[in-house]
Amino acid sequence: MTLSDKLQNAYVSKSLFLRGLQCYKSLYLDRRRPELRGEISYAQEKLFERGKEVGTYAQMLFPCGIIIPYEETPVSEQIIRTTDEIKKGTLTLYEPAFTYNNVFVKVDILNKGKKGFGIYEVKMAAEIKDIYIYDVAVQHYVLKGAGLPISKANLVYINNKYVRNGDIDVDKLFIIEDITEIMEEKEDFVVKEIESMREVLKEDDIPDIDIGRHCHNPYDCDFIGFCWQHIHEDSVFELKGRGANGYELYKQGIIHLKDVPQELLSNNQKIQVECTLERKDFINQKKVKEFLNSLWYPLCFLDFETFYSPIPPFNGTRPYQQIPYQYSLYRKDNADAEFRYYEYLSQPGIDPRKELIEKLLKEIPEDACVIVYNKSFEIGILKSFKDWFPEYKEKIDTIINNIIDLMSPFQKKDIYLWQMRGSYSIKAALPLLVPELSYNNMEIKDGEMAMNAYFTMAKSKDPSEIEKIRKALLEYCKLDTLGMVKMVERMRGF
Ligand code: SF4
Known about the structure:
CATH superfamily of the largest domain: Ribonuclease H-like superfamily/Ribonuclease H
Oligomer: single chain
CATH architecture of the largest domain: 2-Layer Sandwich
Largest sheet: 6 strands, mixed
Bound molecules: iron/sulfur cluster
């Protein structure tokens, strides 16, 4: 290792420090073997964009600050500009940069008060996690070490009880949690961790750290593709629900489902393991028949698409509340009738709620049996509609009372197809039960992609792009509902 490598390895940024707190192996791979990292997904990129938006709103808590740019600006220049601004007496800085003991941090917001500077670390989450405290603690350590008088250390996060009424009120949108008191007690830990991380980075070999819950906690690690290579199909990690747990079994050296002692498995897991190992499906015909007999006409199949945002988009909405912008509905009025299809997709840039619920209430007949997949989601949305439009409360209550959950027979393992791999989501069940319908060739394959496509459409000014996304969204939502229709048809043949 050259001297320059050694110096480079001693250098720790805040993000590397936080990575190291999750897993030393991740820290090492990030610095020494970055080529093993998985690609950043489209969903992660979108999440990053939303984080930036939240950061911009949080800056309004301390307006008129000076931003220290970081994109395409060398770290050394960021530090010099920060120092210059502080010397000039600038009261509020956004993204200022500091270094101490070869640790580099950027602070979301630094604000000078009467007794010293306050650190404000902005999070787009609606609750505090331990890792956020260490995020502030390492900043506190560096700024203090760099000679800055720090009077406060704060976490700024989203207040999910805030209800928008007019323009966003940032004082109500954010909660500022003062964590100054615990900073001193965290300092020893920060110092020791930095030293340990430097030792790890000096090593020639990748740290011998096995996979575990830490691979997903507090964040999904981007080296999962590398570290989990030895986990193949039919592994204990496919076990879902109550009973035996994949991580616990793995710790005992049990990796393959065939090696799991029967007595550790719940009844549902026994069905899963038996079906997987024998490559067979399980159908409880009596229970499926009972389910089908509980349906009645008029029969509707309903699916909503929703988006959520830390910044509530419309009056009466809360941060992270699911806002429906689309639905698809198949309706059959009696056993001999043909299915009729209805759909709604909001135009970009408008509040879709009223238009959507009024159209839907016209299309679902009174006392219809309404089939959905995962009723807690659809019921949650319908309850929100009652809050937004109390005048429709009675009609919406009738729909809620008449909802039947098609997920239920799959969740209870009355129907289990071995390739579902423990899952009972519609994405797992539909392609197996109705192979002619598949998400594989769809431009939009899941709800997360649909939401991001909707955001893109809402921002786009390009008519051809808008049209393309609309078409893809309509196709996607229709497939979910048509899928339910076909699944019930298939179940009648069991
Ligand atoms: S996948 Fe797990 S074991 Fe591997 S580096 Fe990430 S957290 Fe560590």
